[in-house]
Amino acid sequence: MNVLILSCGSRNKIVQYFKKELNGKGKVFATDCSILAPALYDADQFFIVPRIDAPNYISEILSICKKFNIKAVFSLIDPEISLLAKHKDEFLAVGTIPIVSEYELVEMCFDKYAMVQILEKNGFKTIKSYIKKEEFYRDVDLGKINYPVFVKPIKGSASINISKVTSVEEIELAFKKHDQMMIQEFMDGVEYGADVYIDIISSEPVAIFTKEKVVMRAGETDKSISVKDETLFKLINDFVKTAGFKGMIDIDIFKVKDNYFISEVNPRFGGGYPHAYESGVNIPKMIIKNLQGEINESVIGQYAEGIRMMKYNEIKII
Amino acid sequence: MNVLILSCGSRNKIVQYFKKELNGKGKVFATDCSILAPALYDADQFFIVPRIDAPNYISEILSICKKFNIKAVFSLIDPEISLLAKHKDEFLAVGTIPIVSEYELVEMCFDKYAMVQILEKNGFKTIKSYIKKEEFYRDVDLGKINYPVFVKPIKGSASINISKVTSVEEIELAFKKHDQMMIQEFMDGVEYGADVYIDIISSEPVAIFTKEKVVMRAGETDKSISVKDETLFKLINDFVKTAGFKGMIDIDIFKVKDNYFISEVNPRFGGGYPHAYESGVNIPKMIIKNLQGEINESVIGQYAEGIRMMKYNEIKII
C-alpha cells in the first residue's frame, strides 16, 4: 500500500511517521516543486513536480498515482487541498483515494470571514469579524468592540500581514496597503489547537488531541502542552460533524472566560501534529486502517494530560 | 574537559555537536531559565537557572562552573553575551574561560546604528542608516535615498517590529509606536551569512564559512547554499581583525552590484551554524583544541561550494 504526500515542504515528521507505519507494507512517495523541500529526502522515493498552478499539474500527479500504484494521496499546503478536492473523481478513477473534505468545505476554511458566518449560522460562538471597516468604526462608537483588534488578510496563512492595531489610522493604512483585509476581535484568553481525525469510512470523529499553545513563532505553535477537557471535546465533535469534515484536520480555538471560540480550521495535518503523534495519537495508523477497508474505533482523549512539546531545528544537507 | 552552554533554548544542534566532539573527554552542561528549552534535554546534565536579569544570576552560574569543573562557558543569547563579557574576570578566577569578545565590542554588535558608524570609520562599506527621521526625509528630497526602506529597532533581533515601508506616513507611525527606531536603506541584492571562528589564542580568523541565504523565516535562515569567494573571505578577515573579535561569530552581509556590505554581527553561534558544521567546518573541535592550549591552523574556505541546507522541525517531548 503506497501513499503519496504532495507539497511535502519541510514536513519531514509527517513523511517519517508514514514510513514508520507502512514499514514493509508499502512505500511513501513525496513531491514538491522545489528541490529545497527537506521532507523529500525522508521519503522512499520523491519527484520534483511543476508548481500547483501549472496547467499540467494534475495530470502529472495522476500519472505518478497510476504508475506507482498509489492507494492514497494528500497534500500539506492549503491551495492544493482545494485542488485535490476539486479533482477528487479523477483520482478515484485511477484507484487513488484523496484524503480530503468536500470542495466547498475546504474553500470555506481558507476564507476566514465565510468561516465565521457559517459558525454563527450553526450556533457556534465566534470571533467578532468585519470586512467593512466602517461597520467596525460604528461598533467601536457603539461600544460593541474595543481596541486592540487584529487586521489580517481574509485568505491568509502563517501570520503574514497580520497586525495587532490600536487606532483608526493603523486600520486605514493596512486596508490601503493590502487588499481583502478583515478586522477581527482580539481574544484575550488562551489559545488551543486540536488535531482531529474523522474516519473516512464511518464519517465519525475518532481522534481528538487538544493542546494549549504556550509559545508561537511565525504563526506556528513552537511549544505546547496537552490538555483534556470534555466540554472542548464535545464542541469539536459537534462542530466537525455539523460541518461534515473528513480525514485529518487541525482546529484553532480560543478560550476566553470559560467560553470556547472556534477560530480557524486547517483541513490537513497541522504544524503541531507531531505533539499528538508523540503522545500516542497515531493518525497515520488510522488512515492506513481506513485504506484497508476497516473502521477505526474512537480514541478521543486517549492520551496523557500535561505532555509538553518543544520544537527545534533539524537540518538536511544535499 | 567540561563545557557549559548558557541559555541553550532550542539550539539542540549546538549541544549535540559539543557532545559528539567531547565524547569520552568531557561533559556538556546546559542551562536555561525555562524547562521548555528543548536543548536542555540533549545535554549530559542541565540546570534550570534564574533569568539573566536576576540579581543572583552570575553567582549561580559561577557556582555551577566551580562545582562541575567547567573549562569553558558561552551563551547563545545576545543580552547574556554582554553579561559574560562584563564578568569575564570572575569566570577566569574560578578557572572557567568565557568564550566571548570584549564587552565594548559585544555591545556595539547589539546597537545597529553604532555598528554602522564603526564600520564607516574603519573604511568598510555600510548600509545607509538614520536615527533621525528628519535627516532621512531631507535625503529623500535630495535624491540620496529612495523608498522602500526598512524601519527597525536600533537594538532588535529576530525581525521583531521590522517593516519594509514606502511612505512618510508609515515611518511616522512606526516611530510613534515604538521607541529607539532607525531607518535603513533597502539592499536590493543577495544576502550572505558567514560563520567565523577567531582562534582565542592566536587571535587569527581560522575558519570562515559563507553561504547565500535562499529563504528566510522569522528573521532566521531557513534554506542556504554554501559559496566561496576570495573577495568576501578577505573582507571578513580584515573586518574581524580590525574590530578585534574573538571566538565564534556570525556575520550578515549584503552583495549589491558586486559590492559587499557588512550588515550585522552576532558575536555567537548563528542560527545557521549547522550548515557550516555539516559541511565540515567544525568550530566545536577548534574551541576544544584552544582549550587544550593549542592554536588552530586556518581552514578558511575548506569546504565544498554548492552544499544546500534546509531546516525542518524536530520535537522534544517531556
From TrEMBL, chains A, B:
One of its GO terms (molecular function) is metal ion binding. Keywords: ATP-binding, Ligase, Nucleotide-binding. Residues 116-292 form the ATP-grasp domain. PROSITE patterns: ATP_GRASP (PS50975). Signal peptide: none annotated. InterPro entries: ATP-dep_AA_Ligase, ATP-grasp, ATP-grasp_PylC-type, ATP_grasp_subdomain_1, PylC_N. This is Carbamoyl phosphate synthase. The lineage of its organism: Bacteria, Bacillati, Bacillota, Bacilli, Bacillales.
